[in-house]
């Protein structure tokens, strides 16, 4: 059985353990985080996929910084679709400019098992970003079985509010594409990828379709898009969109798992095929059109016995006061345990009155104070009278405008034949930075086997390594904490009373501080009592500072003041009631005096006792 001294030491050591583990976290991270050069040397080099993609396909693996700088061009434009008045009102002209920075670098969170795995990284928080590159050849939809879009996203700092979607920009055969002018108004064919902010949490699939009859271009949004995977996960997620132009169908996959399939004709809003007929905008409802189906009966009359003024509730005349009702007891009484605060100033704070508490006698009875009959539903209550409704003889039914042929209607059979794609780009605004993009594939002719091999070479290798590291990291952290705890407990069990006293000397605190700077956990293990005492001292200082800042004594004083004022008000109200009763008795006696003088009988002496009127106090003035 441990000695009392060791029991007390254990209590102090609990705080030492928690403090040491918390303080040790940054140091441990620094100690276990390898030098970048050493880490790269310890890991095998990343091997880009060597799968042969069909001619004209884009397979962007960001193999080198030089290759990135050659093809990917940041926009020098500014966002154009700005809410009315905001662009002119802002003092920062750069706010709407695409000033967000981009870089090609390795991921820094949940690092994979390979060195040199570069990706495109969005570097700036709370900024507009735009970057794009032209495709080797335009991607077309006509005559192709499948158009595939796939890319990876790693949210290294999570995603609270922002987008990580990819735009497939429309090809214009009349002029070459200029990445420097890329903006929110640049025409695109498909927008696909994650977006989250507030209530918005979706994987967008939007395509722009040109009406063959009118030439209008309309954005069609997927009605029920899938949600974004955990925006707090720092693992790499894979987004895949496959459009089948001939079948007018699509499929969305996340991390290789099919999340949604559907029709380009039926699952988008607004629908690709407009209705054949629409309401005539020039048709107006006639002034004499009656669309009220029911009207009050004009022949109905209020019954003679209908009392509109009868109250909803009346006193229950059959109710009787419970036998244990305490009429002479107050529901609330002065708190017998309350004491006037030592710093109470009668001149400043007024007369102190004890706060009231619930009368304990009332808890054992049906109630206290004057008894009143309860209310009950009035059987004669009918409320306001209104005539009953009858069928309206003039009713013509609900009015609707007449239908006319829709000028925008066209029998669209192949919405999957979309505008060719000439470039890809990211045009984003986000509150979080360090979003890592990688392995972008866009093709109009890649088959399932080639796509599967590309995915295995890129995302699956990375995903497997990240899963292993994530799962391995949890037990290691728990193991370190358990080891520190065991070491501290072991040290406590070996302590004697003299050891405890020695660890509370000034020299021990200095020694502990020196060790803690190097390794907090080991310092707590070697000097657990010192660590615990130091932790308690810090906690006490923090509590004292908070007390000075928040002023609890002032709050207590104010509370006492409010309670005292409430109690005094109740006391004064009771005195006013007694005074009114005495005055009423005196008035009755004065009315009886003429009769008493005329009567031969001796009049009874009048009551002359009267309560003094209450004096004004500072509480009343307040």
From TrEMBL:
A GO MF label: calcium ion binding
GO biological process: ERAD pathway; protein folding
Stored InterPro entries: Calret/calnex, Calret/calnex_CS, Calreticulin/calnexin_P_dom_sf, ConA-like_dom_sf
Principal location listed in the UniProt entry: endoplasmic reticulum
SUPFAM superfamilies: Concanavalin A-like lectins/glucanases, P-domain of calnexin/calreticulin
Localization per Swiss-Prot or TrEMBL: Endoplasmic reticulum membrane
Pfam families: Calreticulin (PF00262)
UniProt keywords, alphabetically: Chaperone, Disulfide bond, Endoplasmic reticulum, Membrane, Signal, Transmembrane, Transmembrane helix
Feature: compositional bias, Acidic residues: 574-593
Record membrane topology: Single-pass membrane protein
One cellular component term from this protein's GO annotations in UniProt: endoplasmic reticulum membrane
Protein name: Calnexin
Organism: Allomyces macrogynus (strain ATCC 38327)
